[in-house]
């Protein structure tokens, strides 16, 4: 691998490219690099994507943005990560077929694995709050979910808007539907929804953070496009969760 994961580094700092790793270390400092646990050795085996490195993330820019639960109750973003480490996944929109299938796999993470590691899992979307409960029922997701309807966090953290595709990018291992079928499913869900809307900005891209306790950023990745999800087991290992899940067929615990 040639180095540990840097705070605020993107997927590109994990792909074994020595030049990218050197740039990442210079951007964040050798002292910080030395303090991050070397858990990335297990997640670099099949990593060959050349990606543009994300800028460092300053949580203070977004800490006071309000997010809303399924009942429309607001809390500040910073309340999620003040007391413990949190994996935060930002989805594109709740109609996005690839986001739906990714969250379906997030739902398979055993609760005990997260509890044993003292790690919390949170999904944030950017629709209105009344779409949360139907999306949880649709995906089987039972962990915390909030919405940022004004895209305050998305914008302040610098997440991408519009999609960028590269020939070297590998598709998300969690997306099962092809592009055409996936889009047809999304259109059908929009048409059959009680409130016909796009359930978020259709051009907004998502991402993933591992943060806390406090404002410490352990890892960040901003999606380039709808298929550019970080593999879930990578997130679990980077968050030092002692178990991963076999998503090949049915959930099966793998001890690491």
From TrEMBL:
InterPro entries: PXL2A/B/C (IPR032801), Thioredoxin-like_sf (IPR036249). Residues 1-24 have a biased composition (Polar residues). Residues 1-32 are annotated as: Disordered. This is Peroxiredoxin like 2C. It comes from Oryzias latipes. The lineage of its organism: Eukaryota, Metazoa, Chordata, Craniata, Vertebrata.
């Amino acid at each position: 691998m040639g180095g540990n994961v840097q705070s605020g580094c993107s997927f590109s700092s994990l792909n074994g490219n020595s030049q990218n790793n050197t740039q990442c270390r210079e951007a964040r400092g050798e002292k910080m690099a030395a303090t991050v646990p070397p858990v990335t050795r297990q997640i670099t085996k099949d990593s060959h994507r050349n990606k543009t490195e994300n800028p460092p993330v300053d949580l203070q820019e977004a800490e006071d943005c309000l997010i809303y639960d399924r009942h429309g109750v607001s809390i500040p973003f910073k309340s999620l990560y003040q007391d413990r480490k949190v994996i935060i996944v930002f989805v594109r929109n709740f109609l996005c077929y690839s986001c739906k299938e990714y969250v379906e796999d997030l739902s398979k993470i055993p609760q005990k694995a997260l509890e044993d590691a003292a790690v919390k899992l949170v999904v944030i979307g950017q629709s209105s709050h009344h779409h949360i409960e139907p999306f949880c029922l649709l995906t089987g997701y039972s962990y915390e979910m909030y919405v940022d309807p004004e895209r305050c966090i998305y914008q302040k953290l610098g997440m991408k808007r519009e999609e960028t595709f590269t020939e070297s990018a590998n598709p998300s291992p969690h997306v099962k539907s092809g592009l055409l079928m996936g889009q047809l499913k999304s259109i059908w869900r929009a048409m059959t929804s009680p409130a016909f809307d796009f359930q978020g900005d259709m051009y907004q891209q998502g991402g993933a953070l591992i943060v806390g306790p406090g404002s410490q950023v352990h890892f960040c990745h901003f999606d380039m496009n709808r298929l550019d999800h970080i593999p879930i087991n990578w997130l679990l290992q980077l968050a030092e969760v002692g178990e991963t899940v076999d998503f090949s067929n049915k959930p099966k615990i793998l001890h690491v």
